[in-house]
Every structure is written in structure tokens, then in C-alpha cells.
Inverse folding.
């Protein structure tokens, strides 16, 4: 199979993001373009999360054939790593160091100690069928895990459920990013009755070391108005991404938040049906966003964006180590998708068993 990669150049090509983010550093262009052969022997499955300790220590998690999938990059190649057999797979990973990595999915929490992956004893975390969906680790005794309607904290000894503000109906949490013991961000959505209808409303919350509070945001219509991921740049700023529905199409959703409010913008960028699923942001490396555009894997980066036209798919996670070392993961045509930016081009990578 051959596939076409479409690229658009320009620092402010992605207008809605550039306007809110401001001066993100430009990187070299272009990525691969034209008709490009797909990588051989792709592994079936989906990668949902990625987290990097260094350029020679990167972790990705997901599912393959209904079981957990954990992959590791050692600076040379991606290899599948043995882990406890769990049904349904893993949804997120967060690395503190080479010997302290956390992964979650379903009702399971797994930990890497530098030698092996083991399941960490937990209370009943799977309060909903889809269970745990996100994790963010600050240190060995400060880890947050998010269930679809609950938030949990690890203090080095045990997991404890932490209450969140009651807002609307059926709040659903999708992402979390912690900076320190007194600073973390939580995103998702909730339902609200409007004129006899139940509308989805995007949701952002902030942790100050004592409690979670709702951060005011602008609402973007009635359907699919939700943030999917968040990344904290500092104790006073975080970026959130997601999507909303307008005129029967999914549109991009971007929020720039401080602890008092979020500035929210949306639009049909770069095409009419585009959704954001993951973000990696820093003042040093710029803002990198992944998702899908017209049901094809999509990457927005400082310098332009890339749409992979080879088959249905989506990129769910992204991790920037530097402006010349960025990883993005997801799925394309029912096989895992791993993309890497080396400062000059995007290339597709494979994982071996």
C-alpha cells in the first residue's frame, strides 16, 4: 500500500492555535510529502499514550488483539515489552524517570521499576465501564489517575479518591496534567439541560494542593463540546485541546487557561472535520497537537500541519523531547501508528514483538 502525505507550510498556518499560543518557535520544513510507502509489517492495534524520559527512553501504551500493549524506544528501535496480561489494554502512560513509570487502563494501574512492569494494588477504580483513561506523575509519591467520572491520587502508599466539584450532569474526565503537589489541571465535559435537550459542555478544573475548582470557559454549542487532553506549561498556564460540533461537523477546540479562566477558540482547521486528541506544550519546544482530519491521522506543529492520507486513523498522543525530537502515536487502518519528528521531517516507525 502507498499513501499520500499532505503538508502545509507556515508558522501561522494553524491560525486558531497560533492566535492563542502566541510565538511558538518555528522548526524546519518540510516533513515528508508526496506519495510515501507505508512502513512494513505494522503491528495490529492502537497506541493511546506516550511519555518520554529522554531521547533514549520513551514509553508508549495501548492495546493489541484485546490485550495490553507496552512499547519502549531505547534510542534505536521500538520493542514490545512484556507486561501483566490484562484484557482491554492501557490508555495512558506517564514517566517520572527510567525507574518510575506509570500506566493505566480499565481498572488496572501498572508500574515500571526499571526492571519489570507490575500491577499496583488499587481500590475499585473502575467506577465506569471504560475505567481509567489518563495518568500524570510528578514524583514517586505524587501521581494522579483519572477515571471517566472520578479522580484518584497516589501518595506513595495507597490510592485515594479525591472529590471534584459537582457540576451539571454526568461529568466525564478525559485528561490530566500535574506540575507539582499544588498544581494540576483536569479536563473533560459535563451535560447540562438546555431547552429540553442535554448539551455537552467543555470542562476545565484546577488543583491548588487542597481542592479541585472549576475554571470558567466559553461553551461551544450543544454537542461534542469537550476537551480531550491538557498539558501544563507552568503553575499559571495550561493548554487544553478537544473538539465540538458545528453544522454537523466536528471542529477543533483549543483553550489557553490560567487558574481563573480559559480563553477558548474553535474552528474548522485545517479542514472542516478535524478533532484534537492530544497535546505536548512547553515554552522551550512549542506546541504540538495531534488528532484526526477527515478521519485521517493529523499533526499540528510549529511550522505547519501534516495529514496522512493512507487510511482511516487518528493520533491520540504526542510527546516533545525537544524541537528536533517529537513522537506521536495512534492508529491507522487498524494497525499501530508511530510518527517521529527529527527537526526536518516526519517519519513512520515500527515496533517489533
Amino acid at each position: 500500500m502507498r499513501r499520500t502525505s499532505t503538508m502545509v507550510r507556515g508558522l501561522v498556518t494553524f491560525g486558531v492555535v497560533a492566535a492563542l499560543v502566541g510565538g511558538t518557535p518555528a522548526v524546519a520544513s518540510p516533513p515528508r510529502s508526496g506519495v510515501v510507502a507505508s512502513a512494513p509489517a505494522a503491528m495490529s492495534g492502537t497506541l493511546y499514550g506516550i511519555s518520554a524520559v529522554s531521547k533514549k527512553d520513551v514509553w508508549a501504551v495501548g492495546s493489541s488483539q484485546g490485550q495490553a500493549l507496552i512499547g519502549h524506544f531505547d534510542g534505536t528501535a521500538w520493542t514490545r515489552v512484556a507486561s501483566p496480561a490484562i484484557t482491554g489494554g492501557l490508555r495512558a502512560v506517564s514517566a517520572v524517570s527510567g525507574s518510575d513509570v506509570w500506566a493505566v487502563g480499565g481498572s488496572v494501574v501498572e508500574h515500571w521499576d526499571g526492571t519489570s512492569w507490575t500491577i499496583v494494588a488499587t481500590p475499585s477504580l473502575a467506577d465506569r465501564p471504560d475505567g481509567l483513561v489518563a495518568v500524570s506523575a510528578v514524583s514517586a509519591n505524587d501521581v494522579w489517575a483519572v477515571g471517566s467520572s472520578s479522580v484518584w491520587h497516589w501518595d506513595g502508599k495507597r490510592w485515594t479518591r479525591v472529590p471534584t466539584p459537582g457540576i451539571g450532569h454526568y461529568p466525564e474526565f478525559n485528561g490530566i496534567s500535574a506540575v507539582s503537589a499544588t498544581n494540576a489541571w483536569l479536563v473533560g465535559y459535563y451535560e447540562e439541560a438546555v431547552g429540553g435537550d442535554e448539551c455537552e459542555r467543555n470542562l476545565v478544573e484546577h488543583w491548588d494542593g487542597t481542592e479541585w475548582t472549576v475554571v470558567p470557559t466559553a461553551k461551544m454549542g450543544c454537542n461534542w463540546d469537550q476537551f480531550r487532553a491538557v498539558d501544563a506549561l507552568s503553575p499559571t498556564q495550561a493548554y487544553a485541546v478537544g473538539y465540538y460540533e458545528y453544522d454537523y461537523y466536528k471542529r477543533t477546540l483549543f483553550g489557553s487557561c490560567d487558574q481563573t479562566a480559559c480563553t477558548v477558540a474553535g474552528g474548522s482547521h485545517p479542514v472542516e472535520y478535524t478533532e484534537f486528541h492530544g497535546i505536548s506544550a512547553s515554552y522551550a519546544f512549542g506546541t504540538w497537537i495531534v488528532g484526526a482530519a477527515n478521519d485521517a491521522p493529523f499533526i499540528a506543529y510549529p511550522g505547519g500541519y501534516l495529514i496522512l492520507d493512507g487510511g482511516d486513523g487518528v493520533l491520540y498522543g504526542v510527546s516533545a523531547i525537544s524541537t528536533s525530537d517529537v513522537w506521536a502515536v495512534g492508529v491507522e487502518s487498524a494497525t499501530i501508528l508511530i510518527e517521529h519528528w527529527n527537526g526536518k521531517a516526519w517519519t513512520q516507525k515500527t515496533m517489533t514483538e
Observations:
- The radius of gyration is 19 Å.
